[in-house]
Amino acid sequence: MVMHGLTQDEAVKAMRAVKASLGVQDEIAFATSTEANLGWKLAELVEHVLEEHEMMTGKK
Predict the structure, then answer these.
(1) Contact between residue 15 and residue 30 where contact means Cβ atoms under 8 Å apart
(2) Percent of the chain, pLDDT > 90?
(3) Which residues contact 5 (CB under 8 A, 6 or more apart)?
(4) Rounded-to-integer distance, Cα 2 and Cα 33, Å
(5) Would you call 27 helix, strand, or coil by DSSP?
């Protein structure tokens, strides 16, 4: 899930709400837009987010 235009607090609340409503913990990778990634192709962003998600959840 990619979020844009949210404050850090709003993004954290959104992530918690999504996880709670779906009853999941680590099955969803989240990202927020940044100055650096706004120019990336979607495929590049997804690949980067998945790599980070796997490292953070210990699934890699």
Answers:
(1) yes
(2) 80
(3) 33
(4) 7
(5) coil
User: Which pLDDT value is given to residue 60?
Assistant: 60
Q: Left if phi > 0, otherwise alpha if psi is -120 to 50, otherwise beta: which for 5?
A: left
Regions of the chain with pLDDT less than 70 = 60
The answer to whether the Cα torsion of 10, 12, 13, 19 is positive or negative is positive
For CA atoms 44, 48, 53, 58, the dihedral sign is positive
Beta strand extents in the chain (DSSP E only)? 2-3, 31-32
User: How many helices, marked H, and strands, marked E, lie in the chain?
Assistant: 2, 2
Range of the domain at 18: 2-57
Which residue do the tokens 């979607």 mark?
42
Token pair belonging to 7: 């404050």
